[in-house]
Write a structure and sequence with these properties.
The protein is mainly α. The protein has a domain at 21-66. The protein has helices at 21-28, 32-40, 57-67; strands at 47-49, 52-54. A two-stranded antiparallel sheet has the order 1-2. β1 (47-49) and β2 (52-54) form a beta hairpin. The radius of gyration is 20 Å and the shape is elongated.
Length: 81
């Protein structure tokens, strides 16, 4: 589907709105400054919209699952008395 100028028209999808740094910080229970540091170190997926940093909630959910650290099972030793 193209608009009058011949450029492909952007579809509007029913997606949740993009999050800003403060919303991500609140959702993760960390400070905004920590989110800014994660962005600066490119340790969290983000989008640039002009000069603004935004986050896609669906991508963040995948990223969070990738950050999960599973517990280690005990090696079966028992305490000696």
């Amino acid at each position: 589907m193209r608009n009058r100028s011949g450029v492909p028209a952007m579809r509007t999808l029913h997606q949740p709105p993009l999050l800003d740094i403060h919303a991500v910080a609140q959702a993760l229970g960390i400070t905004s400054r920590h989110v800014q540091r994660l962005v600066a170190e490119r340790r969290i997926p983000f989008l640039k919209v002009g000069r603004f940093v935004r986050f896609d909630p669906a991508v963040l959910n995948v990223w969070l699952e990738e950050q999960r650290v599973d517990p280690v099972r005990p090696c079966g030793r028992t305490a000696s008395r």
